[in-house]
Design brief:
Distance between the termini: 131 Å
Number of strands: 23
Number of helices: 25
Shape: elongated
Largest sheet: 7 strands, mixed
Radius of gyration: 33 Å
């Protein structure tokens, strides 16, 4: 027998042998059968994937000249999430050490990295807390090198080349509100797009307004990756592979830099003249559109320096100025694009729709109509401007001389035959009046459908509109029934009456609306688009600023962008031709003859219509709408100037200046010789030409983000606007969405070349998000019988 001790020893040997067999088997499995998986895991421990942000696509004018370009700048960024995780004091000591190196105080640097939460004023960080925050641009190479070499002293701090927007303003053109701006992606935008809350770099920007938001998806491009080898210390030892970033498409617009500069100059001069005359003018707009629906220039006053948006950290003073806040309430709100968001009474420029409505209702196009000094409408007296009694006249002469009383009578007569029982029906489904339906057909009271993310719809006072205005303000909003008084102030008396029957369509409202006043408002773009429909023979377009998306690598058109047709006007060709002929007479012998005295009409025949909309408590809104040449129109030019007086005194001279600049009259150099627009630019050829010049470094543009639309899509203009709560009859409304413009990163054609700096962050892709919402509108000016006289 084997002693018990020997049995135990043998048992231990067997257990040890079994363990060796198991370990050997496991080793054999790992080495031979599961080799690929573990090799991959081992390799992953030796490599890192780095995101290479895509260069954001360029935005150019119609000649291919960059309106926004990209430059590179050495930028220092701070990752506050990393600092909070790796330091005991949330990075305070690191920031205190970094601030003097960057030439700023500790307090300034601390402000730059704090989040813009409720109650925190600028400067602060508007982006996600998970993003590295840019704190200094144009940093010297020496400082950048010190930060990189002393990484242990500056944890969470990076120095690298990043893109920054450059605004060359070719020929002085600065359409900042049209171009829009980009800002760091926010937590809300990441949540909206269901994106992970990590992995974003400081240059991950989103188009927030203007063309940057509207065409964000094609402009963004596609981020690439770079796989680098690292050693045990984490130092990069080489590049293993990756995928090249794809530059965003180039957006070629129909804007012409030279015409844009001419329009801006004319608008600035008109505002200066208005102020010199004692007016309080602080905003206005000028629009130039082709008779095929393309926007050639869109100027909004006041404009501003778009570089203010560059880093995403904007001062509170700049915010106040841009949006008219605090002490800057009279700044004119330069962030707002008044061409698409300003709502002004169009005055007598609106008489083309009233003429069309009257003729469509059976009034003779060749008839005679009395132009007395005043007319009585339901017990209220309405006066012709200057109180002249001019006797019988044709529609043509009524347009040339802008006789108000002819149109008061037309409005009243159409009111009397237009389902008067429906006027007092308290219902959102009450039928639309005949004259107001014609106004809607011309595009008023609806979004134009322009390829910008925010525009106002203006106001056409249909019976439905009156119902919604009453519903919104009778017992809420302005609360007419509570705040109105029978014997109170003028406004209180209006509220008192509106509480009782504010939804009722009255005879006086019909009369005053016929001359483009009362509740009627329109944006400068809407008025331009309506006159385009008149000039082109009756086609109403959804205007387009984008002309084509072009590949930056090949120069080939990726997607053409054509203005969709909204509708054909329900107006006879003969009527449109008649009105075009009449408007030519406005310039030669009518209300605009003085403004165009000496203008070489034999070289460029201009037709147009003045408008002067009286506003209670303010000076009149000055309006002039025009087209040229008279018999074969190519372009339409409109200027609207609130608080500036007669249309013939302020807006008409500005329009004349624009026509002179376009055609090169009165000693000026022609912006468009012969009024001919250039063909689509050959960006591939331009890229080859620029490649022969000394190369400049390219930089990553703002990667991924929120977008609004598919370029060139047939967006449907919105429905007739419903009034907001803050409606004050008798005052003019100029309210629009206050989320506009500023900066943008763009790179022309071959910007996706080598040399793009990389960002050591996980790659992420953002899909399209909704862009700036349509503006909230205050309701329009009210009916002031006997005072709304127009020229």
């Amino acid at each position: 027998m084997i002693p018990r001790s020997r049995k135990r020893l043998l048992g231990l040997y067997l257990v040890a042998l079994a363990m060796l067999v198991v370990l050997g088997g496991r080793l054999w499995y790992l080495q031979l059968l599961d080799n690929d998986q573990y090799q991959a895991l081992a390799a992953s421990n030796q490599t890192r994937t780095i995101v290479v942000p895509a260069v954001r696509g360029a935005i150019t004018d119609d000649t291919g000249t960059a309106l926004v370009d990209n430059q590179t700048s050495m930028t220092v960024s701070v990752n506050m999430m990393e600092l909070s995780e790796t330091t005991r004091d949330d990075g305070k000591a690191v920031l205190a050490q970094l601030a003097p190196l960057l030439g700023m105080s500790d307090a300034t640097l601390t402000e730059k990295v704090r989040l813009c939460t409720k109650g925190v004023q600028q400067p602060c960080w508007t982006g996600s807390p998970y993003q590295p925050i840019p704190v200094a641009e144009h940093v010297s190479d020496a400082i950048a090198l010190q930060i990189m070499e002393e990484a242990s002293q500056y944890p969470g701090v990076t120095a690298q080349l990043e893109a920054e927007a450059d605004y060359p303003e070719p020929d002085g053109a600065n359409p900042a509100q049209v171009l829009g701006y980009t800002q760091p992606i926010t937590q809300a935008e990441m949540a909206q797009e269901h994106l992970p809350e990590t992995g974003y770099a400081g240059d991950d920007l989103v188009g927030q307004s203007g063309l940057e938001a509207q065409y964000n998806t094609p402009l963004t491009g596609k981020a690439g990756t770079k796989i680098v080898a690292v050693n045990a210390a984490g130092d990069v030892t080489g590049t293993v592979g990756g995928e090249q970033a794809q530059t965003g498409d180039t957006l070629v617009t129909s804007l012409n830099a030279k015409v844009q500069a001419v329009a801006q100059g004319a608008l600035n001069s008109a505002i200066a003249r208005s102020r010199a005359a004692g007016n309080d003018a602080n905003q206005g707009a000028a629009v130039v559109e082709t008779t095929t629906g393309r926007i050639v220039a869109m100027a909004s006053y006041p404009d501003y320096d778009a570089n203010v948006w560059d880093t995403g950290s904007i001062s509170q003073a700049d915010v106040d100025n841009l949006f008219g806040l605090g002490k800057d309430s009279s700044s004119g709100e330069p962030a707002v694009n008044w061409a698409t968001q300003g709502e002004y009474a169009p005055g007598s420029t609106f008489k083309i729709t009233s003429t069309a409505a009257a003729v469509g209702d059976g009034f003779s196009l060749n008839g005679e109509y009395n132009c007395p000094a005043s007319v009585d409408v339901d017990g209220h007296t309405f006066f012709n401007d200057g109180n002249p009694s001019e006797g019988d006249m044709s529609f043509k002469e009524a347009l040339i001389q802008s006789c108000d009383t002819v149109y008061y009578e037309l409005g009243y007569e159409m009111y009397q035959t237009d389902d008067t029982k429906a006027n007092s029906v308290l219902s959102a489904t009450a039928p639309t009046q005949k004259m107001q339906q014609m106004e809607l057909d011309w595009g008023f009271g609806n979004d134009s459908g322009v390829d910008l993310p925010a525009e106002s719809a203006g106001t056409i006072p249909t019976r439905q509109w009156l119902y919604y205005m009453w519903e919104d303000n009778a017992h809420k909003g302005q609360n007419w029934c509570k705040n109105g008084k029978a014997n109170g102030s003028y406004v209180q008396q209006i509220w008192y009456q509106d509480c009782i029957d504010g939804w009722v369509w009255e005879p006086g409202q019909a009369a005053i609306a016929a001359i483009g006043q009362g509740y009627v408002t329109a944006t400068p773009l809407q008025l331009t688009n309506a006159y385009t429909a008149l000039a082109d023979g009756g086609t109403l377009y959804q205007p387009r600023i984008g002309e084509a998306l072009v590949s930056p690598s090949t120069g080939k058109v990726v997607a053409p962008i054509d203005p969709p047709v909204t509708r054909k006007l329900p107006v006879a060709t003969q009527t449109l031709s008649y009105m075009r002929s009449a408007l030519a007479g406005v310039v030669t012998s009518g209300t605009a003859a003085g403004a165009f005295a000496g203008f070489p009409l034999n070289k460029v025949c201009v037709a147009g219509k003045t408008g002067t909309a009286q506003i209670m408590g303010k000076n009149a809104t000055s309006v002039f709408a025009s087209f040229a040449p008279c018999t074969n129109p190519k372009l339409v030019v409109v200027v609207m100037l609130p608080d500036s007086g007669y249309g013939a005194d302020a807006a008409a001279p500005a329009v004349r200046q624009i026509w002179e600049g376009i055609y090169g009259l009165d000693g000026k150099q022609a912006a468009l010789p012969g009024g001919t627009l250039p063909s689509l630019p050959d960006l591939a050829a331009q890229a080859k030409t620029s490649a022969k010049s000394p190369a400049t470094a390219t930089a990553p543009a703002k990667a991924t983000a929120a977008a609004n639309s598919t370029p060139g899509a047939n967006s449907t203009p919105g429905a007739n606007s419903t009034p907001g709560a803050n409606s004050t009859p008798g005052t003019n409304s100029t309210t629009g969405t206050k989320a506009t413009t500023g900066a943008r990163a763009a790179a022309l054609t071959a910007a996706a070349s080598s040399g793009q700096p990389a960002t050591a962050q996980p790659a992420v892709t953002a899909s399209a998000a909704a862009a700036t919402a349509p503006p909230v509108r205050a309701s329009p000016p009210g009916d002031v019988p006997g005072k709304e006289n127009d020229t």
